[in-house]
Structure formats: C-alpha cells, structure tokens
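User: Assemble these into one structure.

Assistant: Restating your components, then the assembled model:
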Amino acid sequence: MPLLWLFLIVLAIAAVGYVLGRSRALQSAGGDSRDLHSLPSYYGTNVAMKAAVPAFLLMLVWLLVQPLYINTVISGAIPDSAISDGANLGLVMSEVRRTAEGLDALVAAGEMTEAFARSARADLGDITQRLQDAGQIVTSEVTQPILRAAQDYRVMNATGSLLMSGAVIVLSLAGLLWGLRESQAAFRARNVVEAGVRALLIAAASIAILTTIGIVLSLVFNTIEFFRLYPASDFFFGLEWAPSFSGRGGSSELGVIPLLWGTFYISIVALLVAVPIGLFAAIYLSEYASRRVRGIAKPMLEVLAGIPTIVYGLFALLTVGPLLLSVFGREGLGWMQAGTAVMTAGIVMGIMLIPFVSSLSDDIINAVPQAMRDGSYGLGATKSETIKQVVLPAALPGIVGAILLAASRAIGETMIVVLGAGAAARLSLNPFEAMTTVTAKIVSQLTGDADFASPEALVAFALGMTLFVITLGLNVFALYIVRKYREQYE
Amino acid sequence: MYDAPNTELHVTQNDIKIAARKVQVYYGDTHAIKDVDVDIEDKTVTAFIGPSGCGKSTFLRCINRMNDTIDICRVEGDIQIDGEDIYDKRVDPVQLRAKVGMVFQKPNPFPKSIYDNIAYGPKIHGLAKNKADLDEIVEKALRRGAIWDEVKDRLHAPGTGLSGGQQQRLCIARAVATEPEVLLMDEPCSALDPIATAQVEELIDELKQNYSVVIVTHSMQQAARVSQKTAFFHLGHLVEYGETGKIFTNPEDTRTESYITGRIG
Amino acid sequence: MTDASMQGGAAAPSRKSSIHTIDARTKKRNAAEARFKAYGLAAILVGLFFLVVLAVSIVRNGLPAFTETTVDLEFVLTEEQYQEAEGTLFKTAAYTDFFIAGLREQLVEDGVEVAFDEDAIERILGKVGGNLREFYRANEDKLGEPVSFTMSASSRVDGYMNGRVTRDGLEDSRFLMATDLDLVDVLRDAGIITQSFNWNFITGADSGVDNPGGAGIGASVVGSFFMMIVVLVLSLPIGVAASIYLEEFAPQNRFTDLIEVNISNLAAVPSIVFGILGLAVFIQFMHLPQSAPLVGGLVLTLMTLPTIIISTRASLKSVPPSIRDAALGVGASKMQAVFHHVLPLAMPGILTGTIIGLAQALGETAPLLLIGMVGFVARGYPDGFVGGFTEANSAMPAQIYTWAARADVSFYEKAWGGIIILLLFLLTMNIIAIILRRRFERRW
C-alpha cells in the first residue's frame, strides 16, 4: 500500500499547509482579517493547493512513465536468442512480468526471502517448481534470460517506487514553503486560488478529450500491430471468419465481412421491430393520447430503456429463443436449428430500442409547431391526414436522425448478441440461422485463451476500430441532421 | 349589453350566413365566452375587435370548431351556418372545416412546395379528378390569393422560402382552394409589415365578393378600413355589434366608446 | 370522365351540400382515421405487452432461486455405531447406512411406507455419509444425543419441488430416476423435505460449475458496490467540475467546441469500446490488476461521465441568471457566485442525474467482460476495504452473465434470480432519484 500512504502523506502536508498559511497571513495583518486582501481561508487554500497539486501531478506522470521506461529497458536487455520461434517480444515480456509477479507473491507470502528472489545464481528448476507450487505461473519453465529480466524488472520497480516517493514528498514540501512565503496581507490569494480552481475545472472538462484520445490510441496502436501480423486486405475483404483456437497458429482466417453481415442483418431486424412500433407509439402518445394515458404509457415504455442489456440477453437466450424455436424449429416449420439466431437477437434488440425510437420521435414530433397542425385542421384535414402529410414530412429529417441513432445503438449492442445470436460467423440470408456480430467477436477474442500479442486477440482491436468508426460516423451524421432540423424551427 | 332590435336597423339586404345564439365557451374552469348572440352576413367582411383576451379569437375558432382540437375546451349554445347547427352530433368537423376556411395569425405554410401547399386541401377533399384539374384549381386559388404573378415561375419551390406577406397570401390562397363559403381570419396581418398588410387588406376586400369573411383584428384602423360590420368584444361578452361606421363614430355602449378612444384595452 | 364540365358538376353540389349529411368520401376518410389511430394504439399495446412478457419471465424464472429444498432429519448416532463405522473399510458408506436406517425408522414412526435404496438417497442428497462423518468427527461430544440435520437437496430435486422438473419430461439418469420422485413426494408429505428461503443465494459467493445449488450473488453485490463507490467518487466531482466549466466559464472558442463535440460523441460510443479502452489502458498499459472493481469502476466512470455532464449542465442551466447577477451585484467573484449560489441550487438536479448515471453503470456488462470480470469464480468476499477495490471480484451483471453462459441449466434459475436482485437495486436507485426530484424540484 505504499501508493496509498504516499497519497495520505501529501494530503497531510497540504492540511498542515492550510493551517500554517492561514495563520501566517493573519499574523502578517496583525490578527485583523479586514486588513487582508482576501478571506484568511484563501491563504490557507493557496498553500494547500501548492503543496498538493504539483505533487499529485508528478505522481500521476511518474506512474504512467515508469512502466513504459522499465519495459523499454528490460526488453532491450532481452537477447534475441531468448525469443523462441512463433513468439515475439510482447509474449516474452508478458512472461517476464508474470514471473516477476510470481516472485512478488512468493515473497509476500513469506515462502521466499527477498535475497533469494534477487539471487542471480538461483536454480531455475527450483524457482519454476516453487512458482508452480504456489500456482503462480502457467508457462512450462522459466528460462535463464526470463528469470534475469524478471529480477531486473523487480529491482527497477522497487527503485522507481522509492525514487517517486522521495520526489513527490520533496515537491510537496517545496510547494508548501513557496505557498507560505506568499502568505502576506497584500497577496491576492483569492485570485490565485480561483485561477487554480479554474485550471482544475478545465482539467476536468478535458477528460472528455483524453478519453477520446485514449480510445483512439488504444485502438490504433493495437490495430497497427494486428495489421503487421495479418494482412489488412484479408481482414477487410476476407469472406471467412475462422480463428484457430490454439492462439498461436498462423492458420486463422480473420475476414470481417461475415461479422459485418451478421451485425447489419441483426440491426435491420431490430430496426424493423423498433421503428414501426416506436414511431406509431410516439405518434399516438403525442397526437392522440389523453394526458392520463400519456402519463401512464410513456413512463411504462421508458422502463424498457432502463433495463440493463444483460437482462435482454438472458431474455433472448432463455425466453424468446425457445419460443421461436417451438414455432419455427423442427417441431414447427423446420426453419430453425437452435434458439440462438438472427431473429432472436434482432427481435429482442428491437424491443430494447422501442423506447429509444419513441422518445426521440416524440420530442421531434412535438417540436413541429402547433401552427402547422392548425393550418391543416383549418383546411378540414383529419388528424391522421395532418400527421401523415404535414407533421411527419416536417419531422422527417429529425426522425431519420433518430433512426440512425437507433441503428448506431443496435450495431454497438453487445450483450444481446453475445447471448442471443450464436457464435458461428456465417454469410447467409436465413434469419433463423445463428450468426455473429462484430461486438460478440470482440468479446470472444479478448476473453478466450489467446495471448494478447497474437493476431487472434489483436483482431479484436481492429474489430473495435471498425465498430468505432461506423458508430461514430452514424452518430455524427445523425446529430448533424437532428441539429439542422431543430434550427429550422427555432 | 348588445341590443338585438337596435342592430336590426342596420342590417342590409345580404342573407344571414352564420347565426349564433347564447354561445358559451369554457376553458377548463374559465368561462371565456359568455352569452354571445350574433348574426353574420354573407358576402360581407365582419370584424371582431376588442382588447387582448376578450374572447374574440376564441369565438372565431368556434365557428369552424377548431376549439375541438383543444382538450379542455367546451362549447355550449347554438351556432348555425345556413340554418344548420354546426355542433349537431351528425356534423363531422372535417366536413365543416372544408366549408369554413381559416387563416391564422402567423403565416403557417407547410414545409412543402408552393404548389403542394395549395393542392393539399383539394387533394384531401377530393376536389380534383386529375392532375390538369388540380393544376387549374391551384392556379385559380393563387390568383384569388393575389400571389399568382409572384410565384407562377417557382411553383415547386418551398413555401417557407417566401416573404412574410407572400406567405400569408399563400395561406389565404390555400384556404380559398378548398372552395369554402366562409373565411375566418385570426389577426392575419399581425405578423406583417405595413406594405404586406396593405396587400392583404386589399385582398380581403376582393374576397368579400364571393365569401362571408370574418376577421379578428387588434387594429381599429384595420377594422375601419376593411369591414362593413364590426363586433366589439369585452371580457367574453359581445358588447356591441353594428355597421362599422356607426361603431366607430357613434357607439352606443360606453365601453365601446372607451375602447375606441383608447381609454381601455 | 375527365371532362371539365363533369368536374365542375361534381364540385358544385359538394359546395352546397348539407353539413348534416356525411358524404361517402368523409366516411372513407374517417375510417382511415380510425385505422391509423388503431395502429398507434396497437403499437403502444405491443410495447407494453413486451414489457409484461419480460416481467413475467423474470419473475417466474427467477423466484425459484430464492427458495431452497432441504431435508431435515433428527438423528442419533451412538458411541458404538461411531466406533463401528470408523472401523470399517468404507467409512462414509457405513455412515450412509446409518442415515438410511434412521430415515426408515423415522418413516415407520410416521406410519408411511416406501421402498428406497442407497443410490436413491445419493441422487437426492448427494454424499450424505461424508457430511455425517465430518460432523461427528468434529463434534464427538454430540454422540448419543439427538442432532437435527438440515441438508440441501440436489438441484434436480429442488427443480422438481419448484416445478422446473416434471415427471412427464423426466428421463431416468444417474442424476434422477422417476422412482426417486415417489420417495421425494413421501418425504415431503412427512415433512422431512421442506422448502425454505435461500439466504445463501443472497449472501453467498459463487460456487463452482458443478454446484448450482450453492451459488450465491452476495460476493458480486459487494464487487458492484465497490465499483459504484469508484464511479461515484470519480464521476461526481469530475462531472460537476467539467459542467461548471462548460456552463459558466468556458469562452466561445475552438477548445470549448472540441470538448462539446467529444462529450456528445462519447455519449454514443458503444460500451464495448470503453471495455477495449479499459483493457488497453488500465490493464495492458498501466498494469492495474485484472478483474478488480477498481478497474471496472474506472471504465464505468469514463462511460458515465458524459451522462452526468449532460444532466448536470441541464440543471445548472435551469438556475436563472438573476441569481448569478444578484451574487455578482453584492461583490462576489464569479467563482464565489457559482460555488455559493448556483451550485447549491442545482444540486438536487445534479444528484438525480448522478443516481440515474450510476444506475446505468450498475447494469452495464459489456465492458466488464473485457477487463476480466467474467468467467472468474468469485468464491469469497474481499478482505477489508482496500482489498475490495483491488482484489479480483465479479459484479452483479457479470455474475449473471457467467451463470447464463454455464452449461448446466440449473444455473439459469440463478441468473434470473440475480436479475431480480439487480433490478431491485436499479428500482431503488430510480425511486430515490424520483423522490429527490419531486422533493427539491424548483420552478422558477
């Protein structure tokens, strides 16, 4: 728990700083707070801020950079000969880390002394045995270079943490002193503190940007890594999806087309369910329903939107699937082989999207000015004629936007397809057959046994990239349409 | 209070188109229109004037049952058009509204082309047998709306692209296209500039040759310019009804006089 | 037909027609109107029908998870019997024999007669002899006095008692024979087999794949709880700070636009992509422990932030500018105006939005799959508070998925039961949000 302790120490320094800064400022004004430029608490806050913020920033940066640095140094030290056929540096490094973690655990459990864990002459067989006994390692045997690297890794980590603790505490104390020196009556403490708070606010707002950057970077780097191992053209145009299960074989077929087909097919079925029902529900609620009916039916429908997707997944797997199977299965029409199918997932996903489509459409229909309706009624149009020929055409761009947003939801939905759509990648037109989607395969490729450095696992990042680009495109386009539409009536 | 025998004196030879007796309108618990009796003549422009909230628009919307579209609104009493009760159970408001057209305060062209705006009414009422017929109806309506020359080259441009005054004339043309017998106008010029207002007023004057026109207006000058008969509403009552000239020069009720001279309203 | 005079003829009478007679065309139009309205009503009813089907299947399939079937038997083992059993070669078998003898005695006392053998007992109760032996070896002082044993029945028998397993659909197997059900019926009538509330399901931890009866959701509730603490502690301050900046301080410039665009896009990024982010950044890059609620909480925080920011901004916006002007007018700085006046007034709205965001995060599953909270057997509670964040654990939705993905259908009942618990939590959170909104809602 050294991190937690470090954190608490810095906080303590800041707290002390607050008290000292406040009293020092008061003292400089001769105890009369009216002679101060700002309220006394601002002087204290100023000191606390200077003691804590830079120190925490340093801690954060250090924590991010240290593993990177250690990784580079260690992997540079691993001789090429240690990398066996079929493996790569990434695989070896993860083995190094596992060994290091195993040693850590053994030391922590008291089964090995620190000196022994560091000893260069340690017997490989003995260490492997002891690691395996403690259930710490999965590889067959720890080799000499890996053990050496693991030992270096541990030493560097320990030194790094020690250095960081020192640096953070020193920085915190320096901040404290700096803040205290400033605590004079004439010092504009409030302005400084407010500038600091403002900076914190900006930092918080920037997290949205950082998250996007994080998503893009984690997708891009791993996708590039994947395309280094597997040709991009085979990925984008391959008609077959058949990853090898060994996790290291080169015989995998990783074509994205069958997955995209499954994704779109299921999404289309979902939209065929959700759009008519959602749209008609929205029309009824906004144009026909009495206030009481609306007050009951609208929240009830919206309950469907608040239900977690895992529930829908289970509903697809255990209720809708068997139900469809009893009608379309071998005992019924004979079109369906198993409960998991495009239809199953599509229908359930459609149910999930009904409130999404209906509440968006409801908003959009309500945004059509009443004057339009009056104009139409004034000409002797019935309600349905008004809706079909005036309200809906006026709301059309917005509704198209809403449908696109729903489509983007459907494409990105995971749990329903993982549980309800099946696992086989297929290019088929039969909606009663099992198919699989991009999201389902991301899950299966990253939760399987494949090593993270193998193409079978890395393909998930390329799939994620594909998914991200498609949904982002749909969203941006849909939001653009909706915004254009709103402007029209504002 | 409006004195029925008195107005009889000013009735010209035109037929009575709309006859209202003891009309009451309630919005929820609010009693918005109280005991209104009025006879509106054919081929005449009748103006409803009065301060804001006096109920003149509400009463106008009773004549083609537009108030039906408001849930909390309730109408009692008797309104007849050509001797037929429009609140009779047998009446379909949809059919009634084809006969009693309406133009609204703010120009509200549909987000469609100019042509489709006009053709909408005839289409839903089945007035045209084919395309050529429809074209003819549209042209006739646009000519009656005094806007044909301005839009004949861009019939398929969106109606929302026109200027405010053009839009309002388009809406009048749209109302005319369904061949109504009565035309209700709810402050048709309140959103228009003076030039556009003048054009619309000129149009109203022409329309009275074929229709019974009822216009609600805020502007007493406008009422004086375009109408032959004027009704003054105050706090839900019809205070005075008579020849426009008489109302403005020699009102009988003190409230009418106060309003006209600018002391109330 | 298209003759102009014909049209004129057709149009003219309609003009003078009485409004008291409804013409054919209007009738047709009214019929179309009624049809259209019926479609709308049908759509609503279909939507509500789905909701009802969903609710019914959750309740019907999930409720049995809350009951367990037990066999209660008062049993005396004498000192001699104990010595004798310990002296034999197959010790547990000897205990089983004693148990069967005791059961027969009990049945004779109750005056019922039924034939059964050792295998039937094993199918119904599992290895009963082993349990007995374990008990008496630990409590030798209990020898010779009556001890009442409560033992869980097998999941198949449990299913029979709950109606999940029926005689019609039963095929004899080494798990359950049709004749066993006769015995179960007799034992139930004799009050030896009873059903009771399954506390273990609520408080217990997950069991292995071979023991559906012993699986409980308690440990993953704790996992979810720690995750929600992380989400709350991070997303509330960050979300509020970001919203305050964007709503109150941000100048109109490119940087602000960039933030706005990012927030609205992040709100629509599929949750699985956040899982990928968590895997790549928190686990691969920062080497945080896999399956830890800390990592789950971080990922869910990033996912929930846009929701919280959007709702917080809405409640900040609803505070009228006159409040800000009043504070600035008495000489407060802009920062003081916001923190002393605007923020407290917007707080109920912010809390409501946060609770709804938390509820969303609580039910989210997909990102948790990728950071390793699935497939993992959460066998126990974490040690202490810090361990709650860093030790591998599961979370409610992840646990439900794990059960749903297991081959043994007996786990499905647990998954549905887990859903009931999950939905109860969500319901509670939403009700709190509604109460907050009702109680503190201000209309300006």
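Chain C has two domains: 69-197, 218-440.
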